[in-house]
Amino acid sequence: MGRTVKRMPDKHAFLSPSSSERWYNCTPSAWLSEQFPDLGSVFAAEGTEAHRLCEFLLHELLGIPDVDPRPGMQYYTEEMEEACQGYAQFIREKIEKWNAAGASPKVFVEQRVDLREYIPESMGTSDCVIVTDHDIEIIDFKYGMHRVPASSLQLRIYALGACELFAGLYEDINRVHMTIYQPRIGSVDESEMDMAELFRWAAQDLRQRAELAFAGQGDFSVGEWCRNCRARRTCRELAAHQLEIAKYEFKEPPLLSDEEISDVLGRVDELVSWATGVREYALQAALDGRHFAGWKLVEGKSVRKFSDDACVAARVEAAGIDPYEKKMLGLTALEKKLGKKDFQNLLADLVVRPQGKPMLVPVSDKRAELSLASVEFAANREKEVMENE
Ligand code: SF4
Questions:
Q1: Opening angle at CA 47, ends 42 and 49, nearest 5
Q2: Tally of domains within the chain
Q3: Exposed end of the chain (fewer CB within 10 Å): N or C?
Q4: Residue 260 Cα, ligand 1 centroid: separation in angstroms?
Q5: 251 with 207, same domain?
Q6: Could you report the per-residue pLDDT of 137-156, keeping only the tens digit for each?
């Protein structure tokens, strides 16, 4: 499964920092996922626009001429504006902090970094790099809702690229600070390490994993990173991992033990998500002309609907009946419309959070354990209310 095609690095490197968690942990995945098209997603497009707005706001902050991207943006919202403004403010505070410490920070926005010393053909772009006499800061903006820690490989690789670039120019740099700024989930995660340690890790560990991945060698390994693998729908290793759960069907004695149920509970979400993905993949393949033995394409269930709403409304109104219902916007829609601040001022005292339905989660979950007494109390309250209605 060797990979021999050599090419100049482009913006989307074969071993990109953004997919590093996957190819570092499952080295053959780099080659395997190349065989599937990158279908993109609305979330990715939204993230790209948010990054562009961040870049513009930082340029504005630093007095660098740039064209306002907002008019041409497809996914621009008040929420995006708030998130990107927050990021610019965060960078401003970082700069002020370094200035106050007399460290004369230099700020680099959307800095291209060359990673080829450690990762074949790879380049990357770091959202913001701040260089001082002794320190280097890498700050990465994430618009997604899936939490990314500052210890992520992607950020560490950006930090490595920035150190490669600046360590020669600023010889006294010895400490590396890494931050993930993720406003939509209210997370700012920071970590730091010695630059010497970073270079040691890159030389001893990263380079070896990257070379294996580049050659399409090494062992498959299932983990969190499979979520971002284009081969996940048909990867045999992942299928075997998911179907391990099927062993319980044939187990003796006839009833599952509590330990076995715990095991199934821990796997059921990823199993459902994987199986749904396989079904979506197979449907698309069938629509493209593939045939799966024992399966056929049919028309799904359909519900009645009006072909022309305006025409329906006109006819019903002419018959003397109001066809519309007045409905208040939901909480999230109102919060979006008013903006977080006005929403808070106007409605905070009217927002309540009813007790959520009990659910089973792993013990590692941060939420406090429910006492059975409180569950019983809530169930009785609900019953009382229903009886009195
Ligand atoms: S789905 Fe997971 S195990 Fe399979 S190739 Fe991709 S990352 Fe590796």
A1: 100
A2: 3
A3: C
A4: 26
A5: no
A6: 999 999 999 899 999 999 99
Same domain, 164 and 57: yes
Site to probe by mutation for ligand 1, drawn from 20, 22, 23, 35 as the one with most ligand atoms within 8 Å of Cβ, is 22
- CA quadruple 92, 66, 179, 184: dihedral, nearest 10: 90
237 in contact with ligand 1, CB cutoff 6 A? yes
132 lines ligand 1 (CB under 6 A): no
pLDDT tens digits, 63-98: 999 999 999 999 999 999 999 999 999 999 999 999
> What is the CATH number for 167?
3.90.320
pTM score, whole prediction: 0.72
Query: Cβ atoms within 10 A of the Cβ of 230, count?
Result: 17
C-alpha closest to that of 122 among 36, 178, 202, 240: 202
Ligand 1: residue whose CA is nearest its atom 4: 235
Clarify whether residues 62 and 99 are in a common domain.
yes
Q: Is 235 in the pocket of ligand 1 (CB under 6 A)?
A: yes
Nearest ligand 1 atom to alpha carbon 235: 4
Mean pLDDT of 28-49: 87
What is the rounded average pLDDT for all residues in the chain?
Answer: 88
Q: 131 near 108, Cβ under 8 Å?
A: yes
The verdict on 103 and 70 lying in the same domain is yes
Residue 388 confidence (pLDDT): 58
Where are any strands of DSSP class E within 144-204?
A: 175-182, 187-194
Distance 27 CA to ligand 1 centre (A): 9
Domain range for 45 is: 17-215
Same domain, 91 and 201: yes
Among protein residues, the one whose CA lies closest to atom 1 of ligand 1: 232
